[in-house]
Design a protein that fits this description.
One of its GO terms (biological process) is transmembrane transport. The protein is built from 10 helices and no strands. By secondary structure, it is mainly α.
Length: about 210
């Protein structure tokens, strides 16, 4: 391996250390790495900017806008009020989260869905008297599982599909092309969440409001 390879590998390791420290925002670290790679000539300016034109990345950004619109229009509040309601047990509360969140994640992308739902679920947990520690992991995992239902469900699918389109010139995969595989995985995963997590997750007292 030549010096460019070792240099790029060292940059990747340094970026991992910096992001793991928690002192620097991940996007700033990665942009800095991109600038250094471009300035050193390891990648060209066209290669450095190519990722920003990836159709998967553009789709993720657009879905963040859609999720923000749902949040600010009160759509999340309606979901909490009329669908989640007032469960009496932890398992019932987790079931009311996992099913709608998995469905939403299949069509809105799991990352913006989780970002939108966290404050709403936190407030809901205080209302029903169930610790947020019992609900946040099921929220995250169900969003991940829901993301496997469609091509737009998770950023990974979109980025890989975008790269496939660029490399082959084909139109790429359709939105439901992975559903036959993702749906059984999601069903088994959600069943495992509801079977094991009510007892496995800690019951921590919530003393602060979200974001305080």
């Amino acid at each position: 391996m030549n010096w460019q390879g070792w240099f790029a590998l060292s940059l990747a390791g340094a970026a991992l250390v910096l992001m793991s420290s928690g002192r620097y925002a991940p996007h700033l670290v990665m942009m800095s790495v991109l600038v250094v790679l471009s300035a050193s000539g390891i990648i060209s300016a066209d290669q450095a900017l190519m990722g920003f034109s990836n159709t998967g990345l553009i789709t993720v950004v657009a879905l963040f806008v859609v999720a923000a619109g749902i949040h600010h229009s009160g759509g999340v509040d309606l979901l909490v009020r009329y669908l989640l309601r007032n469960p009496k047990t932890v398992r019932s509360a987790q079931a009311r989260i996992t099913l709608p969140v998995a469905l939403l994640s299949g069509f809105l992308n799991n990352t913006p869905v989780v970002a939108t739902m966290i404050p709403a679920v936190h407030a809901w947990s205080r209302k029903i008297g169930i610790a947020p520690s019992k609900l946040m992991i099921p929220l995250s995992y169900s969003a991940i599982l829901g993301g496997t239902l469609t091509m737009i469900g998770t950023s990974t699918n979109l980025v890989v599909n975008g790269q496939y389109e660029q490399l082959t010139g084909d139109t790429g995969l359709s939105i439901f092309s992975i559903t036959a595989v993702g749906l059984p995985v999601a069903i088994v995963g959600i069943a495992a969440i509801l079977l094991f997590m009510p007892r496995a997750l800690p019951d921590r007292e919530d003393r602060h409001k979200f974001g305080s």
